[in-house]
Structures are given as C-alpha cells and as structure tokens.
Design the sequence.
C-alpha cells in the first residue's frame, strides 16, 4: 500500500467518513458515482470495485460489450466533501476504469487524456492548464430568471452572487483546489471562477469538481447554477477559456523567448503550438463545443471567437497572448477562448494539447497576429451540423479518441443534430405563424 492510500485510510478513521464516493466521467462529460463502504477500500485499491458499465454513456456498445468494469480509486484525489455533514462524513476519489483482465478501458475519458499526457512527456514536455469557468445563477432549474443586474467586476448590491462565490471558493479550497480569481461576469447573474495552473489530469479533475461545487453551493442557497453555454438571448454566453503553458523536464517555460522579434516574448515552440491550435480547432470543435447550444455562443456580438484568429488584444480572438506580465518567464502562456464549460474537460484538453503538439511536430509557421476575425481567416463551425461534418473527416480526432469513442460521439451528436433540426422553437412560431 502506497503512502497516499495509507493517508486515505487514516483520514477516513479520523474524520468519521462512512461513505466514499467513486467518481468517474462518461464520454459526454457527466460525472458518475457510486458509494463504497470504507471497509472495502483496501481491496478496492488493489482489485478495483466492479460495476455495470452498460448504462454509462459511451462505455459500452449496443450489444452491452464491456458491461463488466472495474473502478480503481486514485488515492491522490481523495477529499472529504465539505458540503456534507461532519458526522458520518462523505468523501470522494476519482477513478481509473479497467476491464476484468486488468487492461485499461479505452473508452474512459480520463484514460484518453492520460495517453495524451504520456505523448507530451515522450516529446519532452509537461503542460500546465488553468481553466476560467463561466456560469449563470438562476432562481430555479425551470427557467432563466436572473438574480441580479450586475455587470463585469461589479462589487455592490447588484452582485447578489458575491456570497455564493465566496462560499464556493472556500469550499474549493477545503478540497485542495486553489482559486486564482473569481468575479461577476459581463452579463447579469453571470459569474466566473479562475483556477490556478496545474497538471493536465489534475486540471480536468478540478473542472469536474468545480462544477459540482458551484451547483451544490447554489442549491444550498436555494438557487440554481447552470453551465449551459447560451441560456438567454439577451445575455452573453458562458465560455471556459483555457490558459496553457508547456515546460521542459528542467521546468523551463518552453513558451518564453525574450528575443522574440515580434515583441511578444513567444518562442518558436509557442508559435508552432498556436499554429496547431488554429489549424485543427474547426475539426475539433465537437470536443470543445459539443452541444447544439454551444454554437449560439460562438456568434456575433458575444465577445466569443468565430474564426481561427490569434493576437494580443482582440476580445473575439480564438487564441490570445496576454500582455499582463510579458517579461516574466514563468507565466508566459496562451489562452484558448473557444471552449465552453459544457465540454468534457478530459476529451477537450486531450484534443487541445494534441493539436498544439501536432503544430510543434509539424513545424507549422504562425501567421501574423490580428485583432479582429478577418474574412480570410478560417471560420469556426457555426452550428453542430458543420462541426459534425469536420469532425467526421478528422484524422486527429480519430487518433485522440480511438475508434470506439470517435464512433460513439459521431453517432450520438448526429442524433442530437437531427432532433434539433426537427424541433419547432418559439422563434419559429413568433416569426412565421401569423404571416404564413
């Protein structure tokens, strides 16, 4: 038994933990869980805990193949859930998913991301990721009634979410997740939590935990939190900007170069990484923006990217190079701005990092920066149908996901797009009923 596992068993005894939830994520990004008696943990660490994977989205085919699976808890992710009672407490651990023969389950999103982390390491890199997660508070889950009339960075009575954000941050910190910043976003009742840079797998785990905490704290205050990308026509959409840096084995920032002739202190590695993001973003949009609703955010007037542009100051750029501390090597990074918080972070991060790494390995040249989305730039998909068409032909997406997950997403999202095309909205009725 390793030290992390010993720590878990000792903490369970000292903190009166009576339930340990095993967390894992399905292919569509939803957290799944089952509770385990603490007495079963020693064997679970060694042998895993069996569960039926046939009803987990993307984990099995239509014939129920691979329905018998094992969840192996990762002791390094153990945390007591602060929103549950101190007496008879509840804890959680993220799990790796394996088959009965011990092989890693190739459909597990966490495993897919782990493969990409390994590929980065073999190429000599380690990545650090810091997500910025936007969301809305509503009165309840049945509608989109706002809680306040606040705006960007408001700190007054207009921002009724201040206490909600405070309790959310305190809860995250109790779970070992440091928060760099939180604030009211541009639209009424819209908020943002920015996590500190960390390793890739840890960042994806933290996104899932953060979304859970935001919802739990909102529910405790009698309101509802939503990560829907575009929940209202009259409000900006919610994105999840992803801050990315690459480091070598000696922990030097591979994105920094003080001799950069463009004055951005970006290395050749950083520029090729950005070029990879620009080249592959359209065909990977299904992973960074996976729902019909996602593309209602990626539209004019939302301060969201609509094409594969990059630069320093434009608010609708897809990739932005921040200018806060350009001469500080440790913090030189790039920000990818098209993802939204409804994505599966494991699959999205896997796709993003593979695109950037491909840019480096292909030696891609970066175009000149721009502050606006210009007509000659490659547009991002404007709807899920366009994203599907590009995804279906993407060799990179196929490589990242493997045959099974690639096919599952293709079929599932085609069904979603077909359902949407057949639906009749309130817009259709108000626009056409009286005049046609």
Sequence:
């Amino acid at each position: 038994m390793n030290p992390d596992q010993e720590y878990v068993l000792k903490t369970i005894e000292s903190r009166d933990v009576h339930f340990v939830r095993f967390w894992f994520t399905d292919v569509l990004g939803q957290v799944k869980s089952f509770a385990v008696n603490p007495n079963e943990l020693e064997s679970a660490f060694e042998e895993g805990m069996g569960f039926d994977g046939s009803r987990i989205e993307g984990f099995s085919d239509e014939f129920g193949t691979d329905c018998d699976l094992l969840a192996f808890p990762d002791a390094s992710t153990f945390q007591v859930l602060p929103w549950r009672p101190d007496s008879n407490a509840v804890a959680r651990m993220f799990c790796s998913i394996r088959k009965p023969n011990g092989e890693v389950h190739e459909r597990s999103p966490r495993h897919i991301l782990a493969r990409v982390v390994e590929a980065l390491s073999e190429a000599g890199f380690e990545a650090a990721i810091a997500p910025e997660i936007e969301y809305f508070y509503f009165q309840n889950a049945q509608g989109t009634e706002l809680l306040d009339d606040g705006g960007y960075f408001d700190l007054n009575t207009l921002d009724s979410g201040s206490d909600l954000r405070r309790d959310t941050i305190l809860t995250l910190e109790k779970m070992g997740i440091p928060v760099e910043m939180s604030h009211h976003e541009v639209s009424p009742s819209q908020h943002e939590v920015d996590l500190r840079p960390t390793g890739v797998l840890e960042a994806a785990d933290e996104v899932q935990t953060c979304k859970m905490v935001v919802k739990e704290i909102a529910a405790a205050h009698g309101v509802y939190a939503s990560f829907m990308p575009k929940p209202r026509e009259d409000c900006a959409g919610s994105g999840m900007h992803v801050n990315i840096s690459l480091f070598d084995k000696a922990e030097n920032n591979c994105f920094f170069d003080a001799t950069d002739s463009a004055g951005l202190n970006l290395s050749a590695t950083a520029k090729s990484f950005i070029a990879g993001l620009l080249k592959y973003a359209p065909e990977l949009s299904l992973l960074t923006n996976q729902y019909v609703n996602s593309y209602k955010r990626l539209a004019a007037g939302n301060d969201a990217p609509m094409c594969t542009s990059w630069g320093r100051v434009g608010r609708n750029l897809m990739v932005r190079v921040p200018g806060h501390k350009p001469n500080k090597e440790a913090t030189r990074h790039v920000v990818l701005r098209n993802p939204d918080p409804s994505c599966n972070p494991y699959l999205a991060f896997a796709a993003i990092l593979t695109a950037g790494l491909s840019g480096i390995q292909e030696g891609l040249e970066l175009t000149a920066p721009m502050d606006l989305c210009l007509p000659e730039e490659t547009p991002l998909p404007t709807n899920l149908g366009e994203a599907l068409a590009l995804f279906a032909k993407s060799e990179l997406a196929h490589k990242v996901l493997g045959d099974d997950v690639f096919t599952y997403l293709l079929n599932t999202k085609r069904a979603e797009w077909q359902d949407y095309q057949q639906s009749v909205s309130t817009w259709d009725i108000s626009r056409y009923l009286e005049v046609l």
